[in-house]
Amino acid sequence: MSHFVKHNAGSWFIIANPTSGNRNFSKQWKEIQQLLTNKKIDFSVAFTQFSKHEIELVTTAIQEGFRNIISIGGDGTLHHVVNGIMMQRYVKTSDITIAVIPLGTGNDWIKTYNIPNNVEKSIEIIHRNKTILQDIGALETDATSISYFNNVAGLGYDGYIVNKLNSLKRFGAIAYLVAGVSGLLFYKKSVFTIIFDDKKIETNCLMTLFGICKFSGGGLQFTKDINTSDGFFDITIAKNLNLFDLIYNIKKLYNGNIVNHKKIETYKTKEITVIPKNLNPFIQADGELIGTGKVTAKIIEKAIRFVVN
Ligand SMILES: Nc1ncnc2c1ncn2[C@@H]1O[C@H](COP(=O)(O)OP(=O)(O)OP(=O)(O)O)[C@@H](O)[C@H]1O
């Protein structure tokens, strides 16, 4: 191992997405640099130039000896950083630590760990450096490559919304609500065959979610009793819910009680396959579209270390 490689092992490699959120990035970056320097946090930095550039940047950083990565951006940036770590073959993924400085629109992953949506406070948390090993999900679709996720993935209505959101995000957090409600008027439910453990469920389904963490869709809570390192997905099968059910229960969507609705079933499992009939619904992972149609999700227990509050 060269001197250069050893030297980098203790410092942070920052991957920053200058397009995330709706704020003035260069102003934010100046503030971040200052706060990191004040806390004597040693770092190198690379800015993403296009989506999925995170994957390349993470791979290079790991080859150069970095083991600590800071993701600056939203859930999408973090998702691609996680994918970069899971796809590389240089070190054990659990030897890598990720911290987040949030700049995104939704920022759902940080909510599970009570990391505030605030640059200064998130840097204090990095300075404290409390970490946990978290589970990561692996998704196999008809596409040849595997996608990984660190928060919540699913297919059906959630995938439809993510697709819609791509054109609405510039409107900020309200975009989630607008996409959610307008989608209900147009989204066509499909029959899903859902297979896990010794079960086979065939049902008309709004969506099926695979949860590691608690929040998705900009603060909605669809997963029950999450434990981010128990080696199990928290599965949510939202069956024949309609526009009325969702609007009537809007409070429960945000406080987590929606999982007790009679049209929703929840399970814990390590592996699950969902096969949609007829239609080809979008599959989303951490709010990123990764494919359509049939999907298998497998949990990888305690795969990456994360800085938490
Ligand atoms: N330089 C870039 N130009 C365009 N897209 C980029 C760039 N860098 C990263 N991306 C992509 O932008 C997408 C959105 O980023 P991200 O999700 O972090 O921000 P956001 O949408 O504002 O936040 P959130 O997902 O938390 O609502 C991700 O798919 C990411 O890979």
Uncertain stretches of 5 or more adjacent residues = none
Number of strands: 18
Listed once per kind, the bound small molecules are:
adenosine-5'-triphosphate
Strand composition percent: 25-35%
- Give the tally of structural domains: 2
CATH class of the largest domain: Mainly Beta
Order of helices and strands: HEHEHEHEHHEEEHHEEEEEEHHEEEEE
State the major sheet.
Answer: 10 strands, mixed
CATH second-level architecture of the largest domain = Sandwich
Shape: globular
Average per-residue pLDDT, rounded, comes to: 92
- Tell me the Rg in angstroms: 19 Å
| Helix content class | 25-40%
The N- to C-terminal Cα distance equals: 33 Å
Q: How many helical stretches?
A: 10
CATH topology of the largest domain: Tumour Suppressor Smad4
InterPro entries: ATP-NAD_kinase_N (IPR017438), Diacylglycerol/lipid_kinase (IPR005218), Diacylglycerol_kinase_cat_dom (IPR001206), Lipid_Phosphate_FormReg (IPR050187), NAD/diacylglycerol_kinase_sf (IPR016064), YegS/DAGK_C (IPR045540)
GO molecular function: ATP binding; kinase activity; metal ion binding
Domain DAGKc: 7-143
GO biological process, one term: phospholipid biosynthetic process
